[in-house]
Amino acid sequence: MHTTSLADWTHKHSFGQEMIKTGERSTRLVIALTATMMAVEIAAGVMYGSMALLADGMHMASHTAALGISAAAYLYARRYAHDHRFSFGTGKVNGLAGYTSAIILAIFALSMAWQSVVRFFNPQPISFNQAILVAVVGLIVNLVSVLILNSGSSHSNTEEHAHAHEHADHNLRAAYLHVLADALTSIFAILALLSGKYLGLVWMDPLMGVVGAILVGRWSIFLIRDTSRVLLDQQAPGETRAAVTASIESRDDNRVCDLHLWAIGPGIFAAAISIVTSSPKSPEEYKKLIPDHLGLVHATVEVHRCEMI
Fold first, then answer.
1. 17 pLDDT tier (thresholds 50, 70, 90)
2. Angstrom distances, CA of residue 142 to CA of 32, 155, 267
3. What's the maximum distance between 2 C-alpha atoms anywhere in the chain?
4. Which CATH number fits domain 22-231: 3.40.605.10, 1.10.630.10, 1.20.1510.10, 2.60.40.4070?
5. DSSP at 80
6. Which terminus, N or C, of the chain has the lesser number of Cβ atoms within 10 Å?
7. Contact of 206 with 117, CB cutoff 8 Å
8. Is pTM, for the whole model, over 0.85?
9. Cα separation of 57 and 40, whole Å?
10. Helix (H) or strand (E) holding 48
11. According to CATH, what is the number of the domain 238-305?
């Protein structure tokens, strides 16, 4: 009697993580732009005495490092996508990179806030014309970077982000938030420098440094929260769990008595599902009931026979 090979019943666990993502290409291009502008802004901030400009350059320094982490994470995830040491592939490298970027953001936010407060009590002369020019160029570079990263993202506005964090490429989202924060702090720097030049409000410069630090700090908190959910295997959003349950319970007298559904990568989930029914079928039959658009790529199903009342 012919024995079926176990290979007929096994499957890969890379779930597409070996493929080059659009976000990876976008991130590489933005790294080059950000690193160049970072060097210019830091040098100009020191030369022209602008704390707001220096703070913006420091933002970009932290973001260049974070973008480097993002690029490295994409490369690592692809290279080790088929490594059997990873139970569900390398999708969570994405979340880990986003979490690390968020920590870097928080550290630099504290540093910028401290330096800005010090500048309140130790004001320095500012070369406004030169500083404003550099800040405007920095803003243009940041806006271009935002557009590049946004074009590689699966969702392009904050409302969608708030609704579907668990489906996000957290690595790309981290990079996007970094350059978006840079663009906003560039605007703050320009406002501070214009206020100092035309209204004599020199104190606006360090104040904008503090405002920028608060902004970056908030971004870091949000990103830490969202990536932590993935790293700690928090249950998927309620609407996703409800959709899985509804699809299975739509047939016969099936009832889902236990459901564990968690993210294992950007937009992909694994699940352990326990079903109670009076007419048990094979696990594969229940898996076929789950819609593909929910992103459930790995499911373990156990079926319990029970006469329903």
1. low
2. 12, 19, 27
3. 93
4. 1.20.1510.10
5. T
6. N
7. yes
8. no
9. 8
10. helix 22-48
11. 3.30.70.1350
